[in-house]
Amino acid sequence: MLRQKAVAVGERGSVVAEMRQSAVLLSRLIVCVALSTVAVSVALLPFAMALPMTGVNPALTNLDTVNVGMLLLLIPLSLPGAWLSLGLFFAPPVLIVKKLGPIDAMRQSFRLLRGNWWRTSVLSAALLGVLLLMLVVAATLAGVAADDGRGLGSKVGAHPGHTVGYCVRRPSWCPGAARWCWP
Q1: What would you measure as the largest C-alpha separation in the chain, in angstroms?
Q2: For residue 173, what are the β-bridge partners?
Q3: Of 56, 121, 165, 183, which residue is 20 to 30 A from 83 by alpha carbon distance?
Q4: How far is CA 43 from CA 60, 79, 104, in A?
Q5: Which residue, among 68, 84, 79, 86, has the nearest Cα to 46 in the 3D structure?
């Protein structure tokens, strides 16, 4: 990216100078991303602390005990993290293009969004929705392709009597055969 910018501006630089500049920008980029991650994580800390109180377990297997009020409380608790992550979204590109320090790039990222906040947030939400839809379609197609007709979770090519493979189905004790049987 630095080379393309130098060519576009008409600068002639040596490879060694560009590598030095890349190393400096890479170190600044790592610091910028680390600071952004810490800031968003701290902003989402109340959300993470309230999540276990909702009664939703990670596997989503038992939705009978879900506390709807706590789920609704999670929405406002996630807003500071969403605001901060959108505000810091443009910090890495600004850091590279304008050759700013990490803190200055984060400030400039917020300045770039001034006046365009809602437009940017709706566009990024739409992009996230499209990506999630593509993920659901890909996971569904992968699940259909891996289904061998013996039920959900069985591994393709695994024999029902073998314990090798990934099986969601549980064996049951067959008293007549005095052994474990697979459904």
Answers
A1: 85
A2: 180
A3: 56
A4: 25, 9, 20
A5: 79
Contact between 67 and 53 (Cβ < 8 Å) = yes
Name the residue with tokens 């007709």.
149
Identify the H or E element spanning 179.
Answer: strand 179-181
Helix (H) or strand (E) holding 173: strand 172-174
> For the residues of the chain, what is the DSSP string, one character each?
-HHHHHHHHT----HHHHHHHHHHHHHHHHHHHHHHHHHHHHHTHHHHHHGGGG---TT----TT--HHHHHHHHHHHHHHHHHHHHTTTHHHHHHHHT--HHHHHHHHHHHHTT-HHHHHHHHHHHHHHHHHHHHHHHHHHHHHH--SS-TTPPTT--TT---S---SPPEEETTTTEEE--
Q: What is the pLDDT of residues 75-129, one digit of tens each?
A: 888 889 989 999 999 999 999 889 899 999 999 999 999 998 899 999 989 999 9
> What residues does each domain of the chain span?
2-114, 150-183
Q: Does the pLDDT value for residue 45 go beyond 60? A: yes
* Amino acid code (one letter) for 97: V
Q: How far apart are the C-alpha atoms of 112 and 94, rounded to whole Å?
A: 10
24-33, 114-123, 157-166: which has the minimum mean pLDDT?
Answer: 157-166
